[in-house]
Design brief:
Elements: H1 12-21, E1 26-28, H2 37-44, E2 51-53, E3 63-65, H3 71-77, H4 85-94, E4 100-102, E5 110-113, E6 135-136, E7 140-144, E8 151-155, E9 158-162, E10 165-168, H5 173-184, E11 189-195, H6 199-205, H7 209-212, H8 216-224, E12 229-232, E13 239-241, E14 246-260, E15 274-286, E16 292-293, H9 300-321, E17 325-330, E18 339-344, H10 351-362, E19 368-373, H11 381-391, H12 394-397, E20 398-404, E21 419-426
Parallel strand pairs: 1-2, 3-16, 4-12, 18-19, 19-21
Antiparallel strand pairs: 2-3, 5-15, 6-9, 7-8, 7-11, 9-10, 10-15, 11-14, 12-13, 14-15, 17-18, 20-21
């Protein structure tokens, strides 16, 4: 799987065709209910398996899920192999490929102005038992900054309120500050929301605008190795992907709020209830025979893009102070942000703890970090646990920093608004390297058990 291709995949239809040919796409032919049942099927495989639902109750459009929840398939969608994702992401942030403007595109083959009921055309799902309603969760939001010159994208959940209205959860301080400045003038904020996009667009949407100040659609183009085409919206002054399947155009209204939540969050707990801004949809554009899309909340498909972006930042940060860093891993079970494993070629005593300090400086959400030698497989939890068990002495190799900032998506942090950080240096002392030689069996890698049974 994976490897460079002569033709780049820039839309989800070509990806569906590619994964059909490689037998990576699971086709669900049984009719499923968008309330609970569809999400339960996706979550059964943790959102790691690309699947297409051919029959969604009440609708005549197919629906895809699980398109970005597996490292190997994520890499394959970009024509590369899994170990290349983080280096490619770093390169794409540094050397993005600008989008190309087109006068029109497939996403505008159909245009509905002033839609009356958003859920007439496309399914809107309820995922968890106590969710406050049905939600759009896979839409990639497009906005401009206050100057109107820079474009930003991010994924935002939107609770359907009925008619042509949703509310929207804004967790980015920069985006909320911008909205409030526009709101203070009594004006709405123009938005567009894209559905049915390739994994590279979802991955790039997780890159920090505050940190890198780079257009994320340009990053997505560099990830796939080809510029992405954009078209101007019909009712708002924004550009969207010409090959997206569906776009909602609209405005975040000033002053008006609607209660949102509870909702099954990334950390597998329910979030609280709070008033959120309201979006009024002014137009829906979509391709002929559109393909709808969802991302199951808290699944691998939601977590993996977050983890990959954090790995890129972590690797870049640690590399500045410990040149011998080999690889990093942000684990998905730990909310794709709370646990990190760092592999280094230890050259000096103190490299392990220096790497840990750099790791915590790279991301306030990081809670526990482990540094291991290069003989430890950081992708194998058993190997990491073995290193902790056999190379860590807590009084010497563990340190704790209390009263630090943490992630609001981590339930124990929210009890007091602060988190403790714990670093574990699971590297062995250089002068004692001989005592930490791992056992090995010559020729073991060539054993074929079938020849012995």
């Amino acid at each position: 799987m994976g490897g460079e291709r002569s033709e780049m995949i820039t839309n989800i239809r070509d990806l569906i065709e590619h994964w059909t040919e490689t037998n990576d796409l699971m086709r669900i032919q049984k009719e499923v209910d968008p309330v609970f049942e569809l999400g339960a099927v996706v979550n059964h495989l943790k959102g790691r398996q690309p699947m297409i639902f051919e029959k969604v109750k009440g609708y005549d459009v197919p629906m895809v899920a699980g398109f970005g929840g597996d490292r190997e398939r994520m890499a394959d969608s970009m024509g590369i192999r899994a170990p290349e994702i983080v280096p490619r992401l770093i390169q794409s942030i540094v050397q993005p490929i600008a989008t190309r403007s087109r006068s029109t595109g497939p996403v505008q083959e159909n245009v509905i102005l002033e839609p009356e009921e958003l859920d007439d055309l496309f399914p809107v799902c309820q995922y968890h038992a106590e969710d406050s309603g049905t939600y759009y969760v896979s839409g990639v939001l497009v906005v401009k900054d206050l100057s109107g010159k820079k474009r930003y994208t991010s994924i935002r959940r939107m609770q359907y309120l009925g008619g042509n209205r949703t509310n929207i959860l804004i967790t980015s301080p920069e985006l909320m500050d911008q909205y409030r400045q526009i709101e203070a003038r009594g004006e709405p904020m123009e938005v567009a929301v894209m559905f049915g996009v390739i994994p590279a667009v979802v991955l790039s949407s997780q890159v920090s605008s505050h940190l890198y100040h780079t257009d994320k659609l340009d990053i997505a183009g560099a990830l796939v190795g080809s510029p992405l085409d954009v078209v101007a919206c019909q009712t708002v002054d924004l550009d969207v992907l010409a090959e997206a399947e569906v776009v909602f155009e609209g405005r975040m209204l000033p002053i008006e709020r609607e209660m949102e939540g509870p909702f099954g969050e990334l950390g597998h707990y329910y979030g609280g209830e709070a008033p959120q801004p309201v979006v009024e949809i002014s137009a829906i554009t979509y391709r002929n025979q559109p393909v709808w899309q969802t991302i199951f909340p808290s699944s691998h498909e939601e977590k993996l893009p977050m983890a990959l972006v954090r790995e890129a930042t972590l690797l870049s940060t640690v590399r500045q102070v410990v040149p011998g860093v080999k690889d990093v891993h942000i684990t998905l079970p730990a909310v794709a942000r709370c646990h990190a494993i760092i592999q280094i070629e230890k050259r000096h005593e103190g490299d392990g703890k220096q790497a840990l300090l750099a790791a915590f400086a790279s991301d306030k959400d990081l809670k526990h970090a482990v540094v291991v030698n290069q003989d430890v497989d950081i992708w194998d939890p058993a190997d990491v646990e073995w290193a902790i068990a056999t190379r860590v002495q807590a009084d010497r190799d563990v340190f704790i920093v209390s009263g630090a900032n943490g992630s609001p998506l981590e339930a124990s942090h929210n009890l007091r608004g602060l988190s403790a950080k714990m670093g574990l240096d699971a590297t062995y002392p250089l002068q004692e390297a001989k005592a930490f030689r791992r056992t090995s069996i010559p020729g073991a890698e060539n054993i074929d058990l079938s020849q012995y049974v």
